[in-house]
Design a protein that fits this description.
- This protein is an alpha/beta fold.
- The chain is 37% helix and 17% strand.
- The protein has 21 helices and 20 strands.
- The strands form 4 sheets. Strands 3-2-4-5-7-6 form a 6-stranded parallel beta sheet, sandwiched between helices.
- Helix 4 links the parallel strand 4 and strand 5.
- Helix 3 crosses helix 15.
- It is globular and about 70 Å long.
- The protein starts with a strand and ends with a helix.
Length: 556
């Protein structure tokens, strides 16, 4: 049977298991769009408003489902717009495939209209970047891209599609299905060495991260940690990978790391790090563990051998997937019960914060959400000081999920929430967004409206770029420059996209407004009136400024 490259690509993706895709149309891949015309209900195309939003959706979809998020964009400007999602997927270790239109092979190298060298542009952003140069090899390359995105440390793959490769007819046979892949597993010797080192510890800690946990792997790790009474810390924005209600869960190592977590990692004598990429945020700027040889004994377990020893030389390095390793563990005993109990008490105490200045108090709002959200809720956020509320003031049970960018990308929260509603239409999805963060991708409300994938969006409106203002006040106090925002009518904007929308002017009004948001069949946008003084839970903007001025005066 003869088919063109566009049809061949779509048939291969469906055979591999893809059911959803996100994109912005372009003339460079019209043959793919034509092939998608007949796949509704099998491989759906979610029409987005900007390639950055589409790529965020694909990245979030991959992180949430474990199946590669699929994104289609056109050449040049479309591809470079999508770069933010590729970078985010890489830092999040999210499986993703970005298919990019390309100029025809007969025009390559001439700087033709919108031509980009994708191998060069995405070579350091993506896990792999490749270009189709022979239509008959399309199944081979797509199969490799799918496997590359999923195995080892998951990540994004960019596949460039020259226009003539999509229109050329071929008798190449589509893929019949994905490879049956199994995680690498630790040897018996490696597991025994782990048990021996943990049993000899006085202050052990388990540090976990990554996107590719299974329910069985998470349960096995929790069973081991609880039976061994070892405290568990989640790496930056992976606290949804372990039941926060467990007595051994003691917090997240990320931006704004609370003191007890810093102390726990710094004072540990053995750290069992499973599925962790040792990034800046998880290590407090690489200060909690010395580079390259930590004072703590480090057991580093990862499915990618390239992550082991990349920053820190481990005492024991184990090339193993997280689930296979967790299922191989058996309980250990030691005299660290008080160490774990103290850390858990500190974690519980961290939810207490003083009343926040201004109309809406997020301490009270967070408590309301903890009490009223379903146990399988999906929370999303972009970047900004407001992320402290979903990241530090919510307890993720075994069914709840968090979609938040390790890359610190503003504008991620809304596209991620839309992707979550596409993947799981029946689940409650709540996006936290600052006023600046929301406006990075607010046009994607149109995507949500058209796709019928409308989440609840909480806009924390304080009229400033809060994170930058916080740094500004600490380093250049009372010299405000470029951080005040004049905002639109968020309620009117949301209603124009057929969302239920309200402005919440007081803490007392939130519960009722949120109840109406939950009941809305078309999603909801709630604009919360937040004081710019309420920059962090425990220090106001004025206090930051006064402290910085006092420090300057003391140094003068």
């Amino acid at each position: 049977m003869m088919r063109n490259g566009g049809q061949l690509l779509v048939e291969c993706l469906m055979a591999l298991g893809a059911t959803k895709s996100f994109g912005v149309p372009g003339e460079s891949y019209l043959a793919v769009l034509d092939a998608l015309h007949d796949t509704e209900g099998r491989l759906d195309y979610v029409l987005c408003r900007n390639e950055g939003g589409a790529a965020f959706m694909a990245s979030a979809y991959g992180k949430l489902t474990g199946s590669p998020g699929i994104c289609f964009v056109t050449r040049g400007p479309g591809a470079t717009n999508a770069g933010i999602g590729v970078h985010t997927a890489m830092q999040d270790s999210s499986p993703m495939l970005l298919f990019v239109g390309q100029v025809g092979t007969d025009m390559k190298g001439r700087e033709a209209f919108q031509e980009v060298d994708y191998r060069a542009v995405f070579g350091t952003l993506a896990k792999w970047s490749v270009e189709i140069d022979e239509v008959s090899r399309l199944p081979e390359i797509v199969a490799r891209a799918w496997t590359t995105a999923l195995t080892g440390r998951p990540g994004p793959v960019v596949v460039a599609l020259p226009e003539d490769m999509l229109t050329t007819m071929t008798d190449a046979v589509p893929l019949s299905g994905p490879a049956a892949m199994f995680e690498p597993a630790a040897t018996a010797e490696a597991v025994a060495a782990t048990h021996e080192m943990l049993a000899a510890a006085r202050r052990p800690v388990i540090l976990i991260g990554g996107t590719n946990w299974t329910a069985e792997g998470r349960t096995a790790l929790q069973t081991f940690a609880e039976a061994s009474d070892i405290p568990v810390v989640a790496a930056f924005r992976f606290q949804d990978q372990f039941d926060n209600g467990s007595p051994v869960f003691v917090g997240e190592a990320g931006v704004g790391m609370v003191p007890h977590v810093k102390a726990l990692i710094r004072e540990a004598d053995v750290i069992l790090a499973i599925n962790v990429r040792f990034g800046e945020m998880t290590t407090d700027g690489y200060t909690l563990l010395s580079v390259p040889e930590p004072s703590q004994k480090l057991i580093h377990v990862h499915g990618s051998d390239r992550e082991i020893g990349k920053v820190y030389i481990p005492s024991i390095g184990i090339h193993s997937g997280p689930n296979a390793f967790a299922e191989a563990l058996t309980p250990v005993e030691g005299g660290w019960a008080e160490w774990r109990a103290k850390a858990r008490a500190s974690y519980e105490g961290a939810f207490k914060a003083p009343a926040q200045p201004g109309p809406v108090d997020m301490v009270e709002v967070s408590a309301c959400l903890r009490d009223n959200l379903p146990d399988d809720v999906i929370l999303t956020n972009g970047a900004g000081n407001f992320t402290v509320w979903p990241n530090k003031f919510f307890k993720f049970g075994p069914k709840a999920r968090l979609l938040a960018p390790q890359s610190g990308a503003m504008g991620y929260g809304l596209p991620a929430a839309i992707a979550a509603k596409v993947a799981f239409p029946g689940r409650t999805v709540v996006c936290f967004a600052g006023d600046g963060d929301f406006q990075m991708n607010c046009q994607e409300l149109g995507t949500a409206m058209q796709a019928g994938a409308q989440p609840i969006v909480l806009i924390l409106n304080n009229g400033i770029y809060g994170t930058i203002r916080a740094h500004q006040e600490r380093h250049y106090p009372a010299r405000v420059s470029g951080t005040n925002i004049e905002n639109p009518d968020f309620v009117g904007l949301a209603r124009s996209y057929r969302f239920h929308a309200e402005r919440v002017e007081s803490t007392a009004d939130f519960a009722g407004a949120f109840g109406r948001a939950l009941a809305s069949p078309t999603g909801a946008v709630l604009e919360l009136a937040i004081s710019p003084e309420a920059l962090t839970p425990r220090q106001t903007l004025s206090q930051m400024r006064e402290a910085a001025l006092a420090s300057q005066k003391a140094k003068a």
